[in-house]
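lol forgot to send this yesterday, sorry. struct tokens for the thing we talked abt
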């Protein structure tokens, strides 16, 4: 048994998707989509993606950004 399995540590699998840089304009567009859909607790990643209509953006990008957005709004 490998050490990481023994201690229950998950192996990191790098995503095949290119990393997306959330520039201020793109983030603002995201926030506007979330708000127009009823806020961060009601908007789903699929709805946000459809609302934003940005070429090259996919649901994994939205899910990740939504997690960060929700976490940061709790911290502030």
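and heres what i got for the seq, position by position
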């Amino acid at each position: 048994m490998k050490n990481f399995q023994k201690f229950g540590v998950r192996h990191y699998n790098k995503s095949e998707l290119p990393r997306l840089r959330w520039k201020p304009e793109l983030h603002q567009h995201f926030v506007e989509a979330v708000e127009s859909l009823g806020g961060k607790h009601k908007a789903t990643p699929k709805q946000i993606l459809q609302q934003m209509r940005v070429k090259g953006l996919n649901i994994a990008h939205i899910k990740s950004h939504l997690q960060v957005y929700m976490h940061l709004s709790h911290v502030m």
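The chain has four helices and no strands. anyway ping me if u want another try
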